[in-house]
Structures are given as C-alpha cells and as structure tokens.
Amino acid sequence: MGAEINTLLQPKGIQPIPPAFSQVPYDVVNQVYYANTLPSSVVSIPNGRIYGEPEHCSIIAPDNKLIWDISWSGEPTVGEHWFFKQERALQYKETAESIAILTIPWICHQNYYHWTLENLSRINLIRKSGMKVDKFIMHPRNLRFHYETLNRLGILDEQIIEVNQALHLKANQLIVPRLGMPPLLPPKWACEFVRKELFTSMEQNGKYNRIYISRGSAKHRKIKNEDEVSQFLNHLGFQKITLENYTLNEQIQLIASADIIVSPHGAGLANLIFAKPGTKIIELFNPSWAIPLYWVLSNWCNLDYYFYIGDPVGSPSFPVRSDMSIQLPQLKNVLELAGV
C-alpha cells in the first residue's frame, strides 16, 4: 500500500495520557504518525506448501525450506520451529489451484478485532495485487462473525479450506498477504477497506443515540461495579448493550447511529470503524492495559476520543485480563469534558 502521513489528535481525559500512548511511533513535534508508511505485500510462491494446525502455520518453499518470516509458531528460533519436529512433514497433497493464506494465530482467529482488521483486511492486499485466487485457507469457522463477515466479502463456502490436523498442501501458487503494521495499530487503509466492505446504506437507522457497551458476558476485563455504572449512565440517557447478542448487521446499525459511545477496552470496539464522524468515544481502561489501539482507530475515522483509567481489581498474572472498578465522580468529569 502507498505511504500516507497522518496527524493524530491527542487523546483527551482527566488523567495523564497513558505511557503506551506516547510510545506510538510518531514525531513528537509535529504529531505526525508513520504507521501507514510500513510496507504491506503479497508473496506468491510457485509450488509452495502450507503445513498447519490451529496453533501453528508453516509456509514451505519448493526446496523444502521453511520461510520463517511468513510462518508463525510459538518457538523463538527457526531451529525450534514445530515443523521440524513432525513425522508427517514430507507427506502432502497437491492441487493445481492458487491458494491464498488467511490463517492467523488461533487466539487471534477467535477475536473479533484481530479477525476483522488484521485478517480480513489482507483480502484487500490480494485484490490489489491482481493475483487470481481459487481458494482460501483459514482456521475453522466456529463463530458467527466468521460467517457473517466472509459472506459480506463474497467468499463462498466452496472457496474455503479449513485448517485441520492433517493439513499439508502443495499449491500451484501459494499466495501469502502480509500486513505492514505494528501489533494492535491498524493502518488507515485497513479501517477504510473493512468499513467499505461490511457497511451498507441500509444500516443507518439505529435505535440509540447514547450507548454503553457492556463486557458483562466476557471472561475478563470486566467492570466490577457495572450495575452502579450502568445505572449512572442510564440516568444520562445511555442504553446498555452487549454486542455478542446482536448480529453483525445489528451491531453496525447500533454503532453507526450513536452519537456517544462509552465502553471498556475490548475487541467489540473494532466496530468503531462504522461510527459516523464526530461520534464521541469514551474508552475505559484497567491501569495495567491502557493501549492506544482505539485512539489511533478513532483518528482514522474522525471520531472524538476520550479515555478514563479505572482502579485495578485483584492482581492477575496476565495484565491484559485485569478487571477494574469505576469511580463515578471521575467518570462524570470525563463525560463533562466530552460535553455530555
């Protein structure tokens, strides 16, 4: 994709800007962000092979060498890669078709943000390359959003090969799209592509102007005093919603119609790409996982972004999963700062 320079508006809140926000690679003086200048590419490998299962993926050249930088595995070095430990490594099937790779680590495949903005956006790279694709390889589709988004993109069931324990396939052309992006920092073109493909004009009449997105059904990053927070926001005209209870169409409709969105950090905020310009976003963080992902996305989508850092609850060994509690007077101050 072509290089593009963008100016980021500073995040707003009543607390100091989280350290992770200041670590985003942009020029401090001019506030010019360079994430979009990182190169994306599509690699075509004649007679290439894919060898994988849910937790691993190996791309293998015709000379039987592992292509390390476009394979992924949990091992830190090439020599430790799981591919070299498998007995079936030399046993494979062949196809005369062109096969595109849309596999990502399993934990990301199960996550709406990673699936939507880090995986589906790679289809744009393939389309722009002009390469012919007969089928796509991806992990098993076990969640509703897998089916809903692929349907919107026009990818048919018969075009999909799902990874299983026995997958080892040699293709006439193996096509591997690569995103040029830092982790959890989506480029602007990816947001624009997914919005264009998934959003339609029929989904512009929503129900609520003010919504609070709950993580009550999530396993982690919950708001421990959510009943109190929800009641407080309800008095200000906010409707509490749980995105998992809605279809993709309904989620798009809800986000596109909202003027103000309050939400804890979570994958569902990937839907902010469907918000109309000027929508006010108040993102709630636990103090151990305050990252700039949706601040950057809000900039790309011309949204008015605010943040609030709650109080930690417990001492989890995995900070990304920490729960939080919210101080209502401070939340009230953030809302007032946003003009609510």
TrEMBL record:
* Keyword annotations of the record: Glycoprotein, Glycosyltransferase, Transferase
List the coiled-coil residues. none
Start and end residues of each Glycosyltransferase 61 catalytic domain: 112-282
The organism sits in which domain of life? Bacteria
Give GO terms: molecular function aspect only: glycosyltransferase activity
Matching entries from InterPro entries are given as: Glyco_transf_61_cat (IPR049625), Glycosyltransferase_61 (IPR007657)
Q: Under which name does UniProt file this protein?
A: Glycosyltransferase 61 catalytic domain-containing protein
